[in-house]
Structure formats: structure tokens, C-alpha cells
Amino acid sequence: MKTSVFIGEMDWKTYADRVSDGGAPVLLPVGALEQHGHHMSMNVDVLLPVAVCERVAKRIGALVAPALQYGYKSQQKSGGGNHFPGTTSLDGATVTSTVRDIIRELARHGVRRLGVMNGHFENTMFLVEGIDLGLRDLRYAGIDDFRVTVLSYWDFINDPTVIGELYPEGFLGWDIEHGGVFETSLMLALYPELVDMDRVKDHAPATFPPYDSFPVIPERTPAPGTLSSAKAASVEKGRLILDVCVAGITDALRHEFGLVEPTPELERPAVTA
Amino acid sequence: MKTSVFIGEMDWKTYADRVSDGGAPVLLPVGALEQHGHHMSMNVDVLLPVAVCERVAKRIGALVAPALQYGYKSQQKSGGGNHFPGTTSLDGATVTSTVRDIIRELARHGVRRLGVMNGHFENTMFLVEGIDLGLRDLRYAGIDDFRVTVLSYWDFINDPTVIGELYPEGFLGWDIEHGGVFETSLMLALYPELVDMDRVKDHAPATFPPYDSFPVIPERTPAPGTLSSAKAASVEKGRLILDVCVAGITDALRHEFGLVEPTPELERPAVTA
Amino acid sequence: MKTSVFIGEMDWKTYADRVSDGGAPVLLPVGALEQHGHHMSMNVDVLLPVAVCERVAKRIGALVAPALQYGYKSQQKSGGGNHFPGTTSLDGATVTSTVRDIIRELARHGVRRLGVMNGHFENTMFLVEGIDLGLRDLRYAGIDDFRVTVLSYWDFINDPTVIGELYPEGFLGWDIEHGGVFETSLMLALYPELVDMDRVKDHAPATFPPYDSFPVIPERTPAPGTLSSAKAASVEKGRLILDVCVAGITDALRHEFGLVEPTPELERPAVTA
Amino acid sequence: MKTSVFIGEMDWKTYADRVSDGGAPVLLPVGALEQHGHHMSMNVDVLLPVAVCERVAKRIGALVAPALQYGYKSQQKSGGGNHFPGTTSLDGATVTSTVRDIIRELARHGVRRLGVMNGHFENTMFLVEGIDLGLRDLRYAGIDDFRVTVLSYWDFINDPTVIGELYPEGFLGWDIEHGGVFETSLMLALYPELVDMDRVKDHAPATFPPYDSFPVIPERTPAPGTLSSAKAASVEKGRLILDVCVAGITDALRHEFGLVEPTPELERPAVTA
Amino acid sequence: MKTSVFIGEMDWKTYADRVSDGGAPVLLPVGALEQHGHHMSMNVDVLLPVAVCERVAKRIGALVAPALQYGYKSQQKSGGGNHFPGTTSLDGATVTSTVRDIIRELARHGVRRLGVMNGHFENTMFLVEGIDLGLRDLRYAGIDDFRVTVLSYWDFINDPTVIGELYPEGFLGWDIEHGGVFETSLMLALYPELVDMDRVKDHAPATFPPYDSFPVIPERTPAPGTLSSAKAASVEKGRLILDVCVAGITDALRHEFGLVEPTPELERPAVTA
Amino acid sequence: MKTSVFIGEMDWKTYADRVSDGGAPVLLPVGALEQHGHHMSMNVDVLLPVAVCERVAKRIGALVAPALQYGYKSQQKSGGGNHFPGTTSLDGATVTSTVRDIIRELARHGVRRLGVMNGHFENTMFLVEGIDLGLRDLRYAGIDDFRVTVLSYWDFINDPTVIGELYPEGFLGWDIEHGGVFETSLMLALYPELVDMDRVKDHAPATFPPYDSFPVIPERTPAPGTLSSAKAASVEKGRLILDVCVAGITDALRHEFGLVEPTPELERPAVTA
């Protein structure tokens, strides 16, 4: 039976040995099934946080829980809107309950440190609520040493040099990166078979009014569903992003989880291998 | 970009073309993260229905939605109980809401025929409730032609000859198959790297009183977590099960979904390839 | 004021004296309002578990709480389906909440042992969830010695001799017993005024495909609503079933509730009196 | 099979014939399991509205659904408070959901006129909410001719002569009638075996401050749990109350349900028989 | 920065100093947005309990939380019904959750005594449920010394002399006071700019049958929406009501909250100033 | 009776005349009770959107609904965190339900255009969910022309010249404006009595790691609760902000609501009067 950082690929005894008494931290990738333009698959928001989690987990001795495959409703200014076919979203309460339930279960196993790795912007506040309610449940049960760190991997791209390399013509903000250079480059580096650069629609970055309209006005989203063009995406950019995110998140979680001792033998494999 | 029956691996335009106006049916695999003994990974209930769905989808021209990774609480007499580390379950309302939400979204895309493929016995009634509430929502929205078929793949193993081949010493019922010959054989045929036959604990089939106790009395479950021994599992049995299930479900869904015309070119690849 | 095992027929002081400090166990019958064919009343699933509870309670010194009169939605393969007029069902969450609330209240009274006696198959998982959530609430409140046993009385008919007597032409499974020989015989023995054997529709046992369809396809259920014919029902069979069930459940609950001492004077009255 | 106004005692065909196309109205008694002093059983709030419903149903050609056995939490100033052992109450949302679900089901059967007969004051607003939400559901489903009448049978005792007969020394308000002359007299008339007048505790009528305190201050409730003394209760008073209530409610529902034609042969049996 | 009894007008440090360790009690006014006839604004049920709270808070050293602006659905016999334009109501569960959440938060701040001042009759039971659930949450969290007093200010008008002054022609009950002399007089005394006595519709007191109908039958409510005429309202009556309510509630809360020491310098300003 | 744009200050007839048949749009201010440092009151997030709504409503002929006084839990990186005394927050589901319920009610009144004016960043996604669910309810009821615009007033400060005037030393982002120059200046312009500039704590702008930790680590928030210093706040800046926001939102809503005709006589009063 192969060795894996994925909890789903472990037998329960091996898992139990790792997490009992607050041993190994657990990482929970949270994604969505959401259109990402004509040129890319709809599982981007799942695959990317899973890829980051896998690499970080190997470095810090963490385990990776099965990813949440469905997320909160796509918003027009960050994901194009929830009116596209294919985008398949949950009510906020469902996202919240899922996270709350998982936290209670992990705590029962002995886990005490959880990293929630978000790959879909719109999930954020419903994850936060699920964590708040999960921790409330744990307090009721007498558990008050369970800690959660919530991360969106893109928040670790904040070095101006890196941003300059990724966006030589200027960075316009994460909001309109939906289906753009950032996500497409990562997919090219990790899952090139799920990208077809020939189908990229080159269009000007989306611009939106400083408010939101419901029901959504579909014409405000560029027709392909992307909010900026992925034309400038490349494998190299994807590798750079991945390296920077994995390194930054590794450091962050070591600090948050009090993992002062590195585990050098686990870190040696190249991130982008 | 590769061709795939998995919705997550499709771009939205391709998906939209397939499902609009009630075109392609969709299959939703539903699993669990649950201990399956010392010898097998905990994602068995996800991997197996996904494998069945993939093969059936290719035969009937259906698409496969991302699998639900977490399920309802393991029950002692069918899954060993929810007290094991690793088993990570949702409250019933969370399972129900997830299915309800997905049905509303698929209907919005144009889907009108859904197959829910269950891989975890305990999910059943919460799926049924999610379907009932989802169809109620659709009726409120004026949609009354959305049809759902709920299947547990093991229910298609009902030919006494097949059962005789699988259990030459006698079949004791699906209940105690948790982590036993049936699931282990399928995993050996499909994901041998997630099974370690050397770690199988050979024990007598579990016996339980004709009632259930809460909180669970752990001693009633065999210590490894399996309810019967997987010693007699084999790749060949796994292939037989898969062939029979896929054939039976293919026929069933063709009938349910009114798909009278086979699609021969799609069916040619061997099931167990 | 008459002596009674029914909590509803007791005054609060008498009840309080019986249950304080985890004294008497409580039995909760759970039924449904569901069609049971042309020949029988719709309260079968309430009356039968109440009758069993009353007899068991007298033997083990337990008390019987008011029965839940409405249950979860009838499923086609076990109850004919929820499309029949008369069948009046609750959403799953309502069943679950009811049980959860009652558990919290019984615990407040001092009760520590509860038997949930189910008379309607479809209730099962929603009862289980209500129990799980109720026990979670109790743990939050610092109560961890409340124990629940869930029983379906038919599960105590498992002696081949008994089954041979009931079904001389062969037993086809509990699933299709809805409105058939089993329930009708019990009603004949207990409430003959609610049965009209002249109205029994003799039909072949229902057969169903190995999956479920929603919305239900009404034609799959035999028109009278029963899943097998009650023609062979009799008072004698009803008495046999009742004797066997009451004896088996009495033993089971004595064991589960740690009631080693029988109470002979209470047991003497014949079960079927 | 006996003829009955109770839906539970009818077979589904007979029921369906009665209610289809908005035929017979349905009455739903709603009670509670609540302490009613040392001298009386705890099912008073169920038995009394059932008795009223049965008599009214015979007069107006209505049917009686199974009573709700558990109600909302007893309040100190109307029921003594929810701290007594025996009093077994539901959360408000559970009461509300139950009524909402039943309304949806009755409407599916063809019922269009429902009388909700409340026997437990504290239920009132949660019934109202369940009705409002149930009617909202029906509107979503395109049903807008379902009508509900909510009644508390004591509200039909408003003739000063009657009140004078019942309370020759002066009437102090329904609030403190909990377990007092009113309910006890009705029980004596209907279920004398569930009353023990020797155990009545004679005490001054309860007095409360003009506000409510939570958690309840138990000392404010008279120790026996009754809010006024039942010493003056009598069978005769019970018969008078029943006659007046049944007559008043019969008239009210005939008017509300548009039942202009009396059904004389059904009315002949004396109310209190 | 001005001194205020309103929490919203305080900075957090000042507030924290006041409430830590169960210091100052908090009053929570709860209202509604509800029609009150042609002659008066729709915020009556908010403004009046706020006014009472402010005056009481100054006398007992309490603080006043922001008022709930929306309440439970107007009932026909107490508020005219929820069918009027303008009346803007919440589902019961929303009212309940709001109060429950606020209780948890106040307890976190250190508050241990809460007065809930209701200005809208229909809120009552949903407030009670919110309090019950909030106190349950606190018990789970180990807090069992949080006390809540629920008051409706009109319940403090019970002196026959006062009632005689207010209703020289006889008092017909609080039910039909909706938009009548009581509320209008208070508004004249406190917010004359929100009353237009010229627009008062003089009509006979509303009379209703002894039951409730759903959907509401609009004709049963007097057309202006008031249940009795406000013609006899006056500033003087408003001042009298306010004085009596404030005095009575001050005494009640001092007693409930164990505030034996008056704070004379705070009490000197006239109530109606 | 004074003329007002506030619905609470209108009588129902006047309101009904304004909104029937989709007449006047309605604005709903949504705030929070949240600490804003030592120098400012805790109702800032309510007062500011109300002030903006009032001014915009006068310009576009809209009405202003009562503000929601409590909001979602303060987050550390935008509001300091929910651990401060005074900050009094609701669960996400409560915020969502409140908005959903209000939308259903406004639609019943005839309103068809709603502006939700948010004054508390953390509310955003729960408002969005409430709007989505409210619009879903309306679709079920056959109403599909109800439109909602969600605005956060600070999003209308995007002119670099204005930002330069407000932040001559550089703008560091809205995130850390909690209790800083922006909100304090607005309060100085509108409610100077609720600000005490002498109590402003001058501190460096808060810096946070690129992730969130739960339970919150209090030390990461500057001790006063503000995320940047309000020292540079001024009445003039407040007036500028208000003018710019009101002008921008007026234009935006005119466009969104299709209000092409200005109403000059209503616009003449100065914004900051």
C-alpha cells in the first residue's frame, strides 16, 4: 500500500497513529465546480488548492483531507456569476455545515491543528462561519485547543518582484484573475491536459461598477466567462507561482502550528516535480 | 484538452452543449471518508462509485459530476460505527442539503435526468431526502420533468451464479461486507496500490444483536474495523463484480432515462481496462 | 386513578418517582400515518409498536412515552411510496428534531435508558440522527451516561421455525411485508375492528428494480398499496408474532439496560391478553 | 372494519374518497405532554382537544387527524413552567415544522379546509407560524385555496351565564386554569379513570409578577404544578363545558368552512355520550 | 463624547468597564415595523419600548442595546394582520435566532442580567424561544448565572385607578389597543411629530370571532388598520402611562436584578422630560 | 405628521401609495454593533449607511427601511476581531434570514427595486446569500422583476484625487480603515457628539499575516481596536467623503433603477446639512 499524505489514501490505523494526541496537522482543500472560461476545465478551484496542500503537507508533515468539490455561488465580479451552465454551487449554509461537521470529526480523531486551504474566493466567509461554529461546538464539548488557519494560496503572492514577473504589463488585482494568467499558468504547470491555450479568448480585463446587481446582469461578464485574458499564461509562470505559494504557506503553517523543526528529508523533492 | 466524462474536467461550453435541453444525463457518485480495515484506504466508498459511474457514463453518453467525498455517519452494523479515527462524517442535514443544492443547479443548467450512485450504505435515506426536497424546489420553480434514479452498485449483484462465484462458501449478506471480499476485490481490480493484502485481519464474520445501541459499544465491532474477512478477495472477483455492476446499471439507466439507442463506439473499451 | 405504564396516563409525581436518578427506562414508540392497503387502517405503524412497548414495559418495569404519530416519507419498495392519499409524512429534519428534543427532555427528568421502538421502516435513519444529535446535546450539557437502544420489532422474528410457521410457502423478505401477512396478522390479533379481511386484495408479491426512481412511478406499486397479499393473515399468526417479539425484546432490553432481576409478578399476564 | 372519524382508523381508499377535491374538512388536535398537578394525568392537553374534535367532526362531516402528542415548552404563568419532571416539550421550530409538513401532505391528498384544535396554550404562536409557512409552501406549489382555522376550545366559553355556573365565586382568567376546575371537570366527564380527586391540592390561585423570568424561578409555581385548585371540579361542569365548546365550534367551523347544510343524522348522538 | 445609556453610543472601553463581571444589566428593546393606522408612523413598536428602556436604564444603572427593528408577523386580532403594506415582518425562526445570538454575545462581554422589553405583542413567544435557546447555549458553555427578564411595558398598567383615568368609558382589553388610545397617547407624549390626530379614523372597537383564520380575511380588520379608535388619545394620558410603566418596571427590575440600592441622582430627572 | 424618507416614520397609507406597483425604490441600511476604538461610539456602522441612505433617498425619491442594527462577526483583519467586549454579532444564518424575510415582505408591498447599503464589511456575503434566497422565494411565488443592488458606500471613493486629499501620506487600503481616518471623519461631520478626538490612540497601521487564525490571536489587533490611527480625521474630510459617496451612489442607483428623471427640488438641500 503506497505511502500518501492524502487521508483518503491511508488506512485508519496509519492515520490514527499520525493524528492522535494532536500529532499531525490536517489540511483541508476547499474548491468549487465553476466555469473558468472556454479554455480550461471546471475543477480548477479544487485541483489547485489540492496541489498546494500536497506539497505543503510533505514539507511540514501534515495530512490532506479530501477536498470539498462544490463551493459557494460564483459572484460576478470575482467568478463571472452563478448564471453560467456548469457552475454548480451550494447554498451558504451547506458550505458552512460541511466545514463545521468536519471540524467536529477531526477533533474527535485527535487532530488539533487544521489548515483550510481555499481555492474559490466566494467560499471565504462561509468557511469562516463554519470554523466559528465548529470551534463553538468543540468548546461545548470541552475542547479549547483546536486551532484553524484559513489560507487562500494567492494571498502568498505579494512580493513585487514576483508580481512583476507574472504581470510585466501591470497587475490589475486578484478579483479579475478568474480564469486569467494566474490560474491558467498554474494549470499549465500542473495539469496541462486540462487546458487548451488555443481556446483562450483574448479580451480586455473586465470592468465592473462599484456595486453588485441581483439577479445578475449577464452582459457585464465577458462572454467566455473569464475576467481577464489568459493569453500570457505559461508553464514557467505556473511553476513560479507554485514555488512561491508553497514556500510561503510552508513557512506560515510552520509558524502557526508551532512546527519549529523542519523535516529536511521530506522537503528535498522539488515543488514542481 | 482531453476528452472526459467527468464534468470537472470539461470546460463549461462543452458541458453546456451536452446538457442543454435535457440532453446528457448526469451521474453523481456519493461516498464517504470511512475506515475500511487495516488493509485498505479510507476512500473506498468514493473510488468505487466513481469507477462504476465512469464506465456507465461512457456506455450511455452520460456525464459524471464530482463525487461527494464525505457521507453520513458510519453505523456499527454496516460500517463498523462512527467511533473510529479516520471515519469523518457529516450530519444528515448536511448530506441532504448538498444533494438538494446540486439538483437545483443541475436543473438550471438544463439537466433533466440524474443518477445518484451511492457507495456508502448509510447515505441512502439522506440522499433520498435531498432528492425529495430538491424536486420540491424544482416544482416550486415550475420544473416537473426532472427525474432521479438512486442506485447502490452492489444491488446489481443479484445473480445467484455470480454470488456463488464470489462466495463459494456461502454469502452472509451485504451488511457485513464492509471492508470484506466484495469491496476489497473491487479495490484490488481498480486500485491495487491502495490495498495491502498482508494486512488483512482474518476474523469470523461480525455478528450483532437485532438492535442498535447508542453510544456505540465499540467491542461489538471486530477490532480491525472490517465486518468480515477480506482474505478471499482477488483481482478476478473484483473484475467480475465490476463487469456485472456496470452491465446491470447501464441497462437500468438506459431504461430509466429512455435511452433506447446504444452508442456502440463508446461501449467498445473493456470495462475493466 | 388507574395504574398505567403509559407516561401520558400518569401524574407527574408518580412519573418523577419512577424515573429520577436513572430509575425506570422509557420506551418511545415511533410510527407513521401511512396507507396499508384497502383492508386495514392507516395507524398500523403506530398501534403495533405501542402494543409491543406496553407488553415489554410491563415485563421490565419500563414506562411508555406517547407515540410519534407521523413518520418519514413512505418509500415505494418498503411502503408503497409517498404518493398515496392518506399517507401523511414529515420531512426528515422534523422527525430528527422531534427525537432530539424528546431525548433532551427525558434526560432532564432523570431518565438514562431509552428504547426507541420503530414501527415504520422509513423512520430508521432519521431516528438514528435524532439520537446522535440528542446525545451530542447531552454531552454538551455534561451528561454522558444516557443510553439509547433502537429496535424494529420485526427484527426479532428471526427463528426459522417461527418464520416457517408464518410463511409456510416461503418468506420473501420484510421489505414486501408492507400491509401483508405480518402486519395484518398482528392487527387481527390486537385490533380486529381495524381490519376487514374481505377487502384484502390478493396479488402477487411486488417486484421492484434494484434502484429507486423519483418522482415515484406509481404503477410499480400494486394498486391496493400493499406489497404482498394479506390473504394468509390470521389471529394465530398475530399472536405468535407478538409473543416472539415481546419475549425477544424483553430479553434484549433487560440485557441492554442491565436489568438482571426479572419482576415475576408483572410478567405473569399473558402477552396476548 | 369499524366506521370512524379518525383518519388513523380509516383505510386509505375510504379516506381518499372523503377528502378528494376539497371534500371533507380535517381537524388536527394539538396537545402536549405536560404535568397537570398531582391529581391528573399528563395527557390532558391531548385528550381534551381530541374529544372536542371527535364530537365536532361527527356534526360537520369532518375527519380527525392523529393528534400531536408533544407541544411547546410549558410557560410558568400558563402551565407551571418547563422545569417539572414529566413535562416533555419540543423546541418551537419542531412544532412549527410538524404543522408545516402536515399541511403540505393534506393539501396533496386534496384537503382544502383544516381546523387546528389547540389544547395547550403555549403551542399557539408556533402553530400559527407552521400554518403561515405551510400556506407559503402551498402558494409556491400553485395552491391558494387551502384555508386553516385555528381554535383553542376554551375560547368558546365566553357566555357569562356559563362562566357563572362554572365559577360561582368568580372567574380569575384562563391563564391560571392550568390543572384547575376547567380541565379537571372535562377530564372527570370524559376520562374519570385518569383523575384522582383525592389527590387535588387545594391552594390559592397562583399570582405572578407582570413579567417572566428565565431560567424559571420554581418557587413561583404552586408546588403541585396546578395554577389554581381543582377542588370545585365536577362531572357536571365538565359536561357543560364540553356541550358549550362543541356547539360553539361546530357553528364556527360550519361558518368558516362554508358548510351550510347540517347533517342531522350525525348530530343526534348526545355530545357527552 | 456624550454620556449615554445606549450601548451603540458608547465606546467599547466605557461599555466594557460597565458590564464586566456581571456589572450593569442590559435592556434590549424589541419592536416591529407595523402599520398603526392612518394617523401614526409604523415605528411605534420600536420607539415606545426604547423610550421606556431609556428611562428605566437611567434609574437602575442599566444600559440599552440597539432595538430590534423588525418583529414577528402581525396577527389580525392583535395587530390587524400581516397583509397590510408597510407591515414588514420576520419569520419566527429569524426573531428567535437574533435573540439567541445576542444573548451569547452579551454573556461573552460579561453581562449576566438582561431585560428584554417587548413592544410588539406577536414577538412574545419567539423571544421566549430565543431566550430558552440562548440560555441552553450558555449552559453548554458553562455559564449558568445569566438571567433574563421579559417584559411588555403595557403589562405594568394594571392599577384600576389608572385604567379608569385612561378609559373613562371602560377598558376593552389590550388586544384591541393596536393603534388606539394607549399607543397613540404615548406617541403624542413622546413623538408628537409622528402623529396626526386629524387623520385618526373614529370607528367602533374591532370585534373578532373566537378563532383565527389563515389566510387572513382582510375585511375583519377595520379598514384603517387600528383595532380601536384613537380619538380619545392625549398627551396627558401618554405621560401618565409612561410614568406608571417606568415606575413599575424600575421596581420590577430592581427586584429581579437584585439592585437593592437606588441611585438617587440618576432618578431625579422627570420621567416625561 | 412630518414628511420623512424613513419608512418607520411614515404611516402605512402614505407608504403604500409610494411603493405600490413598483413605485418608489427602497434602501435598506445594514450595520453592526462593533467596537470602533476608544474614541468613537459602537454604532458607526449603522449611522453611516443610514446617513448616506437618507441623502440618496431624497435625491432619487426612494424610501429608507429601518437599519439592521446587528451584523456578522467582526473579522480581525477588517474589524479587529469578534473578541472585543461590545462587539455584538449574529451568526451568518441570522443575517441571511433577516434579509431574505425583508425581501419577501417588501415584494408583497409592491416594492420592486431594493438598494442594500452595507456599512459593515463582514456582512457582505451573508447579505448576498440573503438576497439570493429571497429572490429564489420570489421566483417560487411568481415574482421575477424584483431587483437588488448591493452597495458598500466606501466603494464609491475611488477617485485618486479624492483619495489623495483624504490620505496625503498615502492610502493603505480599506481593510485597515476600521476606526481610522475614513470612518472617524464621517462621524465628525455627522455625529461629532459621538467622537472624542482626545481619546484617539495614535498607532502604526495594523499589519497582518496573509492568512486568518481561529480562535483569533488578540495580540495581532492594535490594543485600542482600531486598525489605523484616526489622528488625521477631520470634519472637512468627512464632508468630502459624504459628498462623493452620495453623489456616486445617487448616480449608480438612478442608473440601476432606471430613474432617468432627476427630481431637482428634492436635491437642492446640501448633502452635509
Describe the 3D structure.
- 6 copies of one chain form a homohexamer.
- In chain A, the strands form 2 sheets. In chain A, strands 2-1-5-6 form a 4-stranded parallel beta sheet, sandwiched between helices. In chain A, strands 3-4 form a two-stranded parallel sheet.
- In chain A, helix 3 links the parallel strand 3 (71-72) and strand 4.
- The first copy, chain A, has 273 residues and is an alpha/beta fold.
- The first copy, chain A, has 9 helices and 7 strands; from the N terminus they run αβαββαβαβαβααβαα.
- The first copy, chain A, has one domain: Creatininase (Rossmann fold, 3-Layer(aba) Sandwich).
- Chains in contact: A-B, A-F, B-C, C-D, D-E, E-F.
- Chains D and E meet through helix 4, helix 5, strand 6, strand 7 and helix 8 of D and helix 4, helix 5, strand 6, strand 7 and helix 8 of E.
Write a concise synopsis of the structure shown.
Six copies of one chain form a homohexamer. By secondary structure, chain A is α/β, with parallel strands linked by helices.
Mean pLDDT of chain A: 94
CATH class call of chain A: Alpha Beta
Strand order across the biggest sheet of chain A? 2-1-5-6
Q: What portion of residues of chain A is helical?
A: 25-40%
CATH architecture of chain A: 3-Layer(aba) Sandwich
The name CATH uses for the topology of chain A is Rossmann fold
The share of residues in extended strands of chain A comes to 5-15%
The arrangement of helices and strands of chain A along the chain is HEHEEHEHEHEHHEHH
Low-confidence runs of at least 5 consecutive residues of chain A: 265-273
Radius of gyration of chain A: 19 Å
Which oligomeric state applies?
homohexamer
Terminal CA distance of chain A: 22 Å
Corresponding CATH superfamily of chain A: Creatininase
